[in-house]
Amino acid sequence: MRRRLARPLLVAAVALVSAAHVGSPDTVFQGAAGPYEVRVIVRPPGIVPGLAEISVRVLSGEAVRSVLVLPLRGGRPTALEPPPDSAKPVPGDARLYNAQLWLMESGAYSIRVDVAGTAGSGSVIVPVNSIATRRLGFDTPLAAGLLGLGLFLFIGALTIVGAAVREGVLPPGEEPDAARRRRSWWVRVAAVLLLGLGVYGGKRWWDGADASHSLSLYQPMQVATTVAAQPGAQALRLAITDSEWLGRQYSPLIPDHGKLMHLFLVREDLGALAHLHPLMLDSSTFEAALPALASGNYRLYADVVHESGFTQTLVDSVTVPAGGTMWRPSDPDDSWWRSRQPSDVSRQPSAISRQQVVQLEDGAAMTWVEDAAPLVAGRDIELRFAVTGPDGRPARLEPYMGMASHAVITRDDGTVFVHLHPAGTIAMASQLVYALRAPEDTVRGRLGAKVTAAARQALHMGPMPEVVDSGLVSFPYAFPQPGRYRIWVQVKRNGRVLTGWFDAEVTNPSGSSRRLTADG
After folding, report:
1. Is the pLDDT of residue 353 over 50?
2. Going by fewer Cβ within 10 Å, which terminus of the chain is more open, N or C?
């Protein structure tokens, strides 16, 4: 019974909060806006139309005169677009600017951020999904206030109707007779019936609008996942069964970091992780060879990017049986990790930071370099990690799918999942969609081809020495809710993908303590 219920319960738990990621609705970007290094956080409203909150933190030292933000439905401004809004400085923080923008339609949006100052001007495009993910309810004080106001208006209407019938046509000073008083009561009874019918009709309309909104809440595409046994090995097959996808109502998928799909398997006890890139067998079916994972129940998260710039994380659960011993990766960038014994984890301070250290499989060490900022839900932070070789010196890292590192963060109950890069939570393919889209890109697949070509060229531009040679990698993020999280950080050395892992306790904004451990 538990296994039969596990799959629908997982999907139900995350279906209404899934978009580019699961349970982590904020978009976080860190990068260059011309000569300025900025960190942009977009907190979507959760309803459409709705007000999104935009925070822009200028990380570089140049003085800034103005920060402008503009929502672009198609990625590029048109004559129909409003002028940009000016982000206002936040009191007490000279580097932080804040604005609110209306997102009027559902689908793929972008936020253009323009920064001007002593170093000149620059801009950057931040992809955002505009989707309805929540149903607003009445809190108790508001419900009580509206109910009281409604009763006041109802009784007031009856009083006015009764007085009008009883005394409306009488000369001043004349008292109504018994017949008029009886008539006023009969009219009040009729008014009660009419007003009650109006209230009932309003309630029916409200319930219909509420049901319509509930049906419009975003849900990721439906998928079906199976594990097929092969001689000495196993393969995972994911089929997109959603009627909208099969009916070609979604735009086609485009590669992000050179892959059509980034699929993650997370064991329910967080003791194993697989980062796979399935091959597309047909228009709706993907398959990947499974590494020798420990048998058990796994949560599945699959990141995809559409040609429109819209991103999704497909969710499912799957049971991996025992039996797979051989593994020939379907993709050279596939990787996996499983928990080792506690004795395999070094808890000695390193020369870089007096924090706990995890030992990587090639003998290198990875350290979470903390700063003074606590881990508090909703607060943006830069997660920094240092990799040192067996000799204690900073390790030279190789680009992994065009990035210095990749990270995966999940809450222990699976309600939060995010795939992070040094640029934040955004998909680089979505950013290219908005940067490259032209008016003539109306034919299905044309824009995708342009994005694929540009991404392929970027992947072959070579490593980023200022990041790779230092052994330091960082990720901007804001934990969406308190709880216990596991963080996996993946780097590449000597052609081998290595995974470090850390556990963190995130507190409420009112809390002050946290727990950080390295765990195997």
Report:
1. no
2. N
Per the omega criterion (within 30 degrees of 0), is the bond before 394 cis? no
Nearest to 225 by CA among 495, 10, 460, 369: 10
What's the distance, Cα to Cα, between the start and end of the chain in Å? Answer: 31
Query: What is the helix (H) or strand (E) element at residue 243, kind and residue range?
Result: helix 243-246
Residues 6+ apart with CB under 8 A from 186: none
Q: Angle at CA 442, nearest 5°, toward 441 and 443? A: 100
pLDDT of residue 513: 41
Ramachandran area for residue 445 (φ above 0: left; ψ -120 to 50: alpha; else beta): left
Two tokens at 160? 């006015």
Residue 206 confidence (pLDDT) above 50: yes
Helix, strand, coil tally for the chain in percent (to 5): 20, 40, 40
DSSP state of 376: B
Answer whether 434's CB lies under 8 Å from 72's CB. yes
Distance between CA 390 and CA 399 in Å, rounded? 20
Tokens 């677009």 -> residue? 81
**How far apart, in whole angstroms, are the C-alpha atoms of residue 338 and residue 248?**
38
Q: How far apart are CA 416 and CA 283, in angstroms?
A: 29
Task: State both tokens at 225.
Answer: 């996942």
Report pTM: 0.82
**Cβ–Cβ < 8 Å for 383, 376:** no
Tokens of 6: 């596990």
- What the block records as the tokens of 12 is 């139900």
CATH of 26-130, one of 2.60.40.10, 3.30.1340.30, 2.60.120.10, 3.40.50.2000: 2.60.40.10
DSSP state letters, 282-308: SSSEEEEEE-SPPSEEEEEEEEEEETT
In DSSP terms, 121 is beta-bridged to: 116
Residue 319: CB partners within 8 Å, gap ≥ 6? 3, 227, 295, 296, 297, 298
Pick from 154, 176, 153: nearest CA to 164 = 176
Q: Can you tell me whether residue 79 is helix, strand or coil?
A: coil
Distance CA 349, CA 447 (A): 50
Contact 388, 456 (CB under 8 A): no
Q: What is the pLDDT, as a whole number, of residue 106? A: 85
pLDDT digits (tens, 9 = 90+) for 165-178: 888 878 887 888 88
The residue among 392 and 488 whose pLDDT is bigger is: 488
pLDDT per position as a tens digit, 324-334 = 667 888 899 99
